[in-house]
């Protein structure tokens, strides 16, 4: 499967770092009418003549936020991948593909003449430096296992300040919070309050299925907790994304739990239903034998913003209560 940018380097090592803060104060007063000054997650000052309208996004999470705020980005990294993995905030307006999320094409970005580039701290400092030669760059913190939902909302607010869409950001957050509250109530009514859930994704490498647990420190883990569910994983995740690695034997430690995952038929297939279908360890697991394995709908980006996480909450409630 097409894993998030972090995972290309982190699957084996799981050692991610990010710097700075995404806590954004109100735009600083400026003598020039309409001018906006912000501090991004790298500590850099970002000054705009006014709300940005021609915006490029180098990571799917920030692209989703832009679309949710009503801003159609003129450039998006890996448009095909975004379309496959993030259906919660569909692209409109035919944005230009600027290359990969790890290595956006500076020539392509420059040709779009953006007035703002929104990136994340997963992008290398060298790449950020090159992009800053083209246009102002607003870098948001990629992830923080200590407060994923708070960070997600802070990032949305910061992007909204830069694009003059703070009122829309409030509506997006209100809708997300309402989905969590409704989902928690529905799960409790169905007897799932406090029940364990293990969420994972997987991929095949060298004919072996690698499984990636989303621990309590992950964004999805945080959403599950807000829904009143208990995270079944006992492995430790990384300090940024709250992700870990295991194999099919590692699943034997889960015990009594529901098991959920997301896969893409067009990008990596379904390793749980396909590659593990005849694996004796997998088929012996209690949650497999008891038909408590739930594949969630495609197009829910596991590292997205309120739109994706709201879609995820709806999907989890649906599969557990149907």
TrEMBL record:
<dbReference type="InterPro" id="IPR051313">
    <property type="entry name" value="Bact_iron-sidero_bind"/>
</dbReference>
<keyword id="KW-0813">Transport</keyword>
<comment type="similarity">
    <text>Belongs to the bacterial solute-binding protein 8 family.</text>
</comment>
<protein>
    <submittedName>
        <fullName>ABC transporter substrate-binding protein</fullName>
    </submittedName>
</protein>
<dbReference type="Pfam" id="PF01497">
    <property type="entry name" value="Peripla_BP_2"/>
</dbReference>
<dbReference type="GO" id="GO:0030288">
    <property type="term" value="C:outer membrane-bounded periplasmic space"/>
</dbReference>
<dbReference type="InterPro" id="IPR002491">
    <property type="entry name" value="ABC_transptr_periplasmic_BD"/>
</dbReference>
<feature type="signal peptide">
    <location>
        <begin position="1"/>
        <end position="20"/>
    </location>
</feature>
<keyword id="KW-0732">Signal</keyword>
<dbReference type="GO" id="GO:1901678">
    <property type="term" value="P:iron coordination entity transport"/>
</dbReference>
<feature type="domain" description="Fe/B12 periplasmic-binding">
    <location>
        <begin position="54"/>
        <end position="322"/>
    </location>
</feature>
